[in-house]
Every structure is written in structure tokens, then in C-alpha cells.
Amino acid sequence: MNKYLGLLVILFCCQFTFAQDVTGKWKTYDIFDKNRAESIVFISVVNNSLYVIIDEIIPEDHRNDLCTKCTDDRKNKPIKGMVILEGAKLKDGVWQGAKILNAKNGKEYGCEISLYGPDLLKVRGFVGYRIFGKNLYWTRVKENDNE
Q1: Domains of the chain from N-terminus onward
Q2: This prediction's pTM
Q3: Which of 19, 67, 113, 122 is 20 to 30 A removed from 50 (C-alpha atoms)?
Q4: Tens digit of pLDDT for each residue in 68-106?
């Protein structure tokens, strides 16, 4: 009987780990600039689709930047408040099937997002095939974090 109880506890813990929520605020980092904190994004799920919005830009000198290199309806719009990903669907623990915008260069990339730890998000951006990409890691912003 005890071995079944132990198995149930393990299964419950594993399910809790995989059920962790990706919604909320996350800090992003510029991997090309010594992993300098770049922005705070807000992730939400609406009708089973994932959305990512730039909530705050951390470097003061970029807080009022416009997306001058965007080629769609976001061209010359403020980066702060911009939707950079919309419509990803959850499949096997990975949010996929949408493109993510890099507002610095105006380009969109294929994207997969997965929870890498309770407070760490793995964001894989790629061109064409996921093998041609890079991993970014975003950290969860907690209510008592100051930035």
C-alpha cells in the first residue's frame, strides 16, 4: 500500500510541475549585450491562445522607441504596449505555431515557448526550422521585484 501512495505523490508532483502557469510578467534579456535586462513582457492566454505584450522597456533611453523597422501595421508604433506574439497553441507542454517579433530589427521568427522551471521560461526563436535558432531565457517577475 505504501508504494502506491509514494507513486501517487510522485505523479501529483510531476503533474503540478507541468501544470505551472506561463501567464504573468517575465523579464527578457538581450543575449547580444551581456544578457542585459531588456524589457518586462506580460503573457496571457485568451481562448487557449498565448499572447505576449511588451509591458515595460528597461533601458531608460529606449522607453519611447518606435518600431521603425516593422513592416506591418506596427510600423512606427510605440514598442511599449506592442503585441509581439499572438496565437500560439499549447501542444505537449510547448506553446507553438506563432511568430514572435523582434521589435529592434522588425523581423518575425518562428517561436516555441516552454516552462523550463517554475520561474524560468525557455523561448526558442528560429528561422524556418527550429534547428536554425537560439534559446532565450526569461525570468518570472515576482510582485516584490524592483526594477
Answers
A1: 20-140 (2.40.128.520)
A2: 0.82
A3: 67
A4: 999 999 999 999 999 999 999 999 999 999 999 999 999
